[in-house]
Design a protein that fits this description.
The protein is about 70% helix and about 0% strand.
């Protein structure tokens, strides 16, 4: 599937030079940048959710306790 993105010449040249320096294509640079942004925001979402749960129940476990609870011993 093809997607069009509008940008000015300066932005396009920056992306082309970045791709060239990294031995990549403009498409790969754009795809990777978009996916990394989504992954970063998803990680932040999960962190905030986990931190909120921790604030509601601030119980912590040692590595040994967690291993036992998870049956990893």
């Amino acid at each position: 599937m093809a997607i069009s993105i509008r940008m000015n010449n300066q932005e396009l040249e920056l992306i082309k030079k970045y791709a060239e320096l990294n031995g990549s294509t403009v498409s790969e640079v754009m795809r990777n940048a978009i996916l990394e942004k989504i992954e970063d925001e998803f990680d932040i979402f999960l962190f905030n959710k986990a931190f909120k749960a921790f604030e509601e129940n601030p119980k912590t476990y040692t590595v040994e306790e967690a291993s036992k609870i998870l049956g990893l011993e």
